[in-house]
TrEMBL record:
Catalytic activity, as annotated: 7-[(3S)-(3-amino-3-methoxycarbonyl)propyl]wyosine(37) in tRNA(Phe) + S-adenosyl-L-methionine + CO2 = wybutosine(37) in tRNA(Phe) + S-adenosyl-L-homocysteine + 2 H(+); 7-[(3S)-3-amino-3-carboxypropyl]wyosine(37) in tRNA(Phe) + S-adenosyl-L-methionine = 7-[(3S)-(3-amino-3-methoxycarbonyl)propyl]wyosine(37) in tRNA(Phe) + S-adenosyl-L-homocysteine
Organism: Sula dactylatra
Gene3D superfamilies on file: Kelch-type beta propeller, Vaccinia Virus protein VP39
GO biological process: tRNA methylation; wybutosine biosynthetic process
Protein name as annotated: tRNA wybutosine-synthesizing protein 4
Transmembrane segments: none
């Protein structure tokens, strides 16, 4: 929430202050804030001494304008800044100062608006900045279009600043739309203007000669100085990267102008001009189906968890945040899925030694070392607390034949021999072989002290002691929320979120050599689209990347298949027409069943900014036989 509202205010301030700087040589300028609500922009600009020759006009419904006028009059500091001239209460003008006019009028009634602005002293011939911050989308398109066209036609030197939602049809967009519909405030512009390109065309067609637009991920990366980015990232404990980036990919800032000399382009005069990729080229689609289940699966509505295939047709899911006993919380219970006669049955696992420290952890890893023994590494409770170390999970040898609800898992605390390796989360733990011995390779992640880690440890699988094994080659940049898979005795690392909170598109192979290991770069063609919070599997020389978050806001990640022999990289979209709910593929887990070439997606989702929490309600099955044979 804090970051989401920060970036909105930052974008508006950036563009408004740019307008004021670029028009300093003009004797008079004006700002017209449409649907201003209780925005404090005027008072901030005035307090900063930026309104030497600028009048600010604010327009909103009469009842809102009257309430705001009352608030201003009540507060001495605000009244003093305005310098009240006593002109309030005259018709639609609810408050009037020398450089501040507050008008109560309905924006959708254009002739009424024009008359009120004329009465308040708005001048059509001087540089004018129009601000519409999440306003036009609540109006019928014909009325908001008319307003955009009117501003271009009636004002000789005009600039427009628009901040609004977009991408209504992807999973996050569907949750966003549903939220506003439930508030009886439907987002009316989204069907006709669903993305940046449509909004840009809209402004050109309505008479504007310059128009730039970017989503808020681009704005934060390209228009926010790096020291300011670092300041914001360090302000408070933070571990909601997926929600933040998805929120930013569903809002845009647009600036348009006409008649301005020089041109007003505040989004292009920034540090870096962003490279906007075209649409992702899809090689095909894979149909998602709800898993055939014998029992209900409410315990699998969670994110930040871990699911692992203990033995054929038996999946253990632990940890994460989700729904338990009717409330959202960190998950205490473990769940098992067992497949019988083509159907899965879910059950809640009993814990032996429940007093042992499970700590309801998120973003941990679970590695199966035998049919009955699994190792939990890392994870967290709060992002401000230290990582949670290691834990053994002991399962019955016969758990595949049991009813899921009859299975008991024993929790066994660990000696702290390898604690430094385990005090992390959003890391990976992957099996590797060296000189015929089995090791667990713990790599990357983050901790309470370090927002991103690039170190690694080799844990001997039997003794769980840290072993020093030489590693040569170019060291990958630090990352968390990446994927890691065992392959040919080594480890494949793909994607992740890097030090500047930017998704990474690199793929590395940690290859076994005679005397140690070597990092090797895996080149992909075309280059892999940077992503994180995905899952991954290797099958028959192909690396499968599943879901995740990327900044490519024209679509959401589906399945990417990388041929490890040739480097060929193909993207497949997931067809969700048979699902009755949005499928969010971040913070999920996935299990690949090689015999059936079937991928099981479990959980996933999270908070959707202020629009509510969405957790995928049921496990989903994807048949990959077509793409794995034809690829």
């Amino acid at each position: 929430f804090h970051r989401g509202y920060y970036i909105r205010a930052r974008a508006v301030d950036h563009c408004v202050q740019d307008f004021l700087r670029k028009t300093q040589s003009h004797p008079r300028t004006q700002i017209l804030s449409l649907g201003a609500g209780f925005d404090s922009l005027y008072f901030r600009l005035k307090d900063l001494g930026l309104l030497h020759h600028t009048v600010v006009y604010e327009v909103d419904f009469p009842n809102v304008a009257c309430q705001k006028a009352t608030l201003i009059k009540r507060m001495k500091e605000l009244s003093a800044l305005v310098g009240d001239t006593g002109g309030e209460g005259l018709g639609v003008i609810t408050f009037s100062g020398e450089d501040y006019k507050l008008l109560g009028v309905d924006l959708s009634e254009l002739s009424e608006l024009e008359r009120a602005l004329e009465e308040a002293g708005l001048d059509n011939e001087i540089p004018t900045l129009f601000i519409a911050e999440v306003v036009l989308t609540y109006m019928e398109n014909r009325r908001s279009d008319a307003l955009i066209q009117w501003a271009a036609e009636r004002f000789s030197k005009a600039c427009f600043l628009l901040y609004e939602q977009m991408h209504p049809e992807d999973p996050f967009g569907r949750v966003m739309q549903q939220h506003f519909s439930q508030l009886n405030s439907a987002l009316l512009s989204l069907a006709q203007y669903p993305d940046c390109e449509a909004q840009q065309r809209r402004f050109f067609e309505k008479g504007w000669t310059e128009c730039s637009v970017m989503d808020m991920n681009e704005f934060f990366t390209c228009c926010t100085p790096e020291d300011e980015q670092r300041r914001v990232q360090a302000l408070e404990p933070f571990d909601e990267y997926e929600e933040w980036h998805l929120k930013c990919s569903h809002y845009f800032v647009l600036t348009a102008s006409k008649g301005m000399e020089p041109s007003w382009t505040p989004l292009l005069s920034s540090m870096t001009v962003p490279h906007r990729d075209g649409p992702v080229r899809m090689a095909g689609s894979i149909t998602a189906a709800v898993c055939a289940m014998h029992s209900e699966t409410s315990g699998l509505r969670r994110y930040g968890h871990c699911s692992v295939l203990i033995k054929p047709n038996v999946i253990l899911t632990t940890g994460g945040f989700g729904e338990e006993d009717g409330q959202h919380c960190r998950m205490r219970n473990f769940h098992v899925l067992i497949k019988h006669a083509g159907c899965w049955k879910a059950g809640c696992v009993k814990k032996e030694n429940p007093c042992k420290r499970w700590d309801e952890r998120l973003y941990h890893t679970v590695s199966c070392l035998s049919n009955s023994l699994a190792l939990v590494v890392g994870g967290r409770t709060s992002p401000s607390s230290a990582g949670l170390g290691m834990l053994w999970l002991k399962l019955p040898e016969t758990c595949g034949a049991s009813d899921p609800d009859d299975i008991t898992v024993e929790l066994i605390s660990m000696q702290p021999a390898a604690e430094p390796a385990a005090l992390r989360w959003r890391h990976s733990t992957t099996e590797a072989l060296f000189k015929g011995e089995k090791y667990l390779f713990v790599y990357g992640g983050r901790s309470a002290m370090e927002p991103v880690l690039g170190d690694w440890y080799f844990l001997h699988a039997q003794e769980l002691s840290c072993t020093v094994i030489p590693v040569e080659g170019p060291v990958p940049e630090s990352r968390h929320s990446h994927s890691a898979c065992s392959w040919k005795g080594g480890v494949l690392i793909a994607g992740g979120l890097g030090a500047a909170e930017q998704p990474l598109g690199s793929v590395f192979f940690l290859k076994e050599l005679e005397h140690g290991f070597q990092w090797q770069t895996v080149e992909t063609h075309p280059p892999l689209i940077p992503r994180y919070s995905h899952t991954a599997h290797v099958h028959d020389g192909k690396l499968l990347l599943v879901g995740g978050v990327w900044f490519h806001s024209s679509s959401v990640p589906g399945i990417t298949v990388i041929d490890l022999m040739t480097g060929l990289c193909l993207d497949y979209e997931i067809n969700v027409e048979h699902l009755e709910w949005p499928l969010m593929l971040h913070n999920h887990s996935s299990v690949f069943l090689p015999d059936e070439k079937e991928l099981l997606l479990i959980g996933g989702g999270g908070n959707c900014f202020s629009f509510g929490t969405h957790l995928n309600p049921e496990p989903v099955s994807l048949s990959l036989s077509n793409i794995l044979t034809s690829h």
